[in-house]
Design brief:
This protein has 9 helices and 8 strands. It is an alpha/beta fold. It binds cytidine-5'-diphosphate (2 copies). Its main location: cytoplasm.
């Protein structure tokens, strides 16, 4: 039987950074489900399809093939066979992902891939509905959050390091809007699973959060 760790939480909480670290230190696979939604979003953007039009999205999905590969232990996202890992990190794609993720047909498309990875590997999987919906039997569930100001400041720092100028207010507004969409959709909304450990990382370093989660693992 595999050991699965589910990490859910809002945008910029530190999920991917922490999940990658914990997975590396435990020799588990890190599965980034947000990247899968982002890949579908990129496919829709390329086709010029609006996520607000569910019927159009559903009709386009068969032409949007999403698969993953691992290169040097890093998850790579393939869209119709093309490695798009470097193209899915923009705010435009993130916002489109959040809108598309509210559609049942989009979630359905990724369900089997996510479940199968956890069935066959020890994983640290992060997203919005992993503990509540995808891996309800996960041995450890974490709900990782931080204040909106902290999360926006982290995102701003990331963008500045890449040389991309951006206003703090715009980033904060985008984050709040995306959280709102993710928490209030009908299907698989972002919420803490009843048996998840709540962790507010606003005043915690990456090392501290990693150690805390590792201390909860009972392999
Ligand atoms: O995956 P998610 O959107 O939840 O967040 P992330 O991309 O892992 O983290 C956003 C930024 O916050 C990254 O630049 C991390 O290095 C930083 N971070 C931090 O400064 N302190 C933490 N305790 C966790 C993340
Ligand atoms: O890195 P960040 O936290 O900004 O977002 P992400 O994890 O890359 O996810 C992008 C979007 O995909 C989220 O805003 C969610 O709407 C959606 N998503 C989801 O609905 N369910 C998941 N398990 C993962 C992501």
């Amino acid at each position: 039987m595999t050991y699965n760790i589910a990490i859910d939480g809002p945008a910029g909480a530190g999920k991917s950074t922490i999940a990658r670290r914990v997975a590396g230190e435990l020799s588990f696979i890190y599965v980034d489900t947000g990247a899968m939604y982002r890949t579908i979003a990129l496919g829709l953007l390329r086709e010029g399809i609006d996520a607000g039009n569910g019927a159009q999205v559903e009709a386009a999905l068969p032409q949007i093939q999403v698969s993953i590969a691992y290169r040097d232990g890093e998850q790579q996202m393939l869209l119709n066979g093309e490695n798009v890992s470097g193209l899915i990190r923009t705010e435009e794609v993130g916002n489109m992902a959040s809108r598309a993720a509210a559609l049942p047909c989009v979630r359905e498309k990724l369900l089997d891939l996510q479940k199968e990875l956890a069935r066959t590997h020890n994983v640290v999987m992060d997203g919005r509905d992993i503990g509540t919906n995808i891996l309800p039997e996960a041995q450890l569930k974490i709900y990782l959050t931080a204040s909106a100001d902290t999360r926006a400041a982290r995102r701003q720092k990331e963008l500045q390091e890449k040389g991309i100028p951006c206003s703090f207010e715009k980033i904060r507004d985008d984050i709040i809007k995306r959280d709102d969409q993710d928490m209030h959709r009908e299907i698989a909304p972002l919420m803490q699973a009843a048996d998840a450990v709540y962790l507010d990382s606003s005043d915690m370093t990456i090392d501290e959060v990693t150690e805390k989660i590792k201390s909860l693992v009972n392999v």
